Structure formats: structure tokens, C-alpha cells
Hints:
This protein is of the alpha+beta class. It is 33% helix and 17% strand.
Amino acid sequence: xxxxxxxxxxxxxxxxxxxLDARDIPLPREGDAESLRAHKERTAPPLLRxxxxxxxxxxxxxxxxxxxxxxxxxxxxxxPWARSVYxxxxxxxxxxxxxxxxxxxxxxxxxxxxxxxxxxKDGRVRSHRFLGGHTYLAAMRGDDATTRAVASxxxxxxxxxxxx
Length: 164
């Protein structure tokens, strides 16, 4: 049975709490609009399309609530993003003129479906290769398609930061 994430609130100190939802997933029946609606509602909650889901894991720390006498930051990818031009912020520095986007815009770009995925829109779905985050893993496995996809996705960024 697939487990879907369900955001249940915040832990002490602001760290998000994410639990997995093991309720049954209703299967759609051909020609039955209501069963399709119920299936989509259960399998595609708004949380799956939000920065909130990413931040649940990508901002982590240990503090007194976890038995540590001092706060220790584990990782915080959300704050640099929130301060960047990608989140619409020009507070820290003036970046190149780049379009605003969330985590999915860079790490889960859309790609063509190969098997007629019913969840596709115009024949495209979000990639679950998480480009950038798994670059080393793709190179280590010899996954040339993912390595090329990372290079292609990052090329505009490298052009913005390269020195003359």
C-alpha cells in the first residue's frame, strides 16, 4: 500500500513534522468522474506541490527537544532559496534577471512521458530524478541521461555566474 506524506504541523523550535498517511487509495474506475476525482484528491494533495514539503526535510536541526544541550543546524536549503532571486527576493544581493521558481522548478523539471502516464499534462510529468541533489549518484551509476539532464538544467545558471 503506498504511503503518502501528510503534514501534521510543527515540532518545537519550528521544525516541520511530516507523517505518512496509510489510508487506502481509491482506484479510479473508467468512465466514473467521481472515482477519478476521489483518486486525484487522495494521491495529489496540495502539499505535494509546495515548498513546504521540501522544507520538511531540507531544514533540519537538533536542539533541546531532541536531547541536545545546544542547537545544531543539520541543513538549511530553504533559507538561501528564500533569500534568492528565485523566491523573488533582492534583499541580499542583486542577482541576474532570472524567473522566480520553487524547488520543483529546478530539481523536478517537467519531462515527456514514455508510457502514456495518466497523470501527465500535455504529455509531460514532473521528473523524480531530483536533478542537482543526486548528481554524484547519477555519475557514479553511469546514468548518462540524468548527468546530461543536470548539465542542461544548470547551463543557464553557470552562464550567469561565470567570469568574463
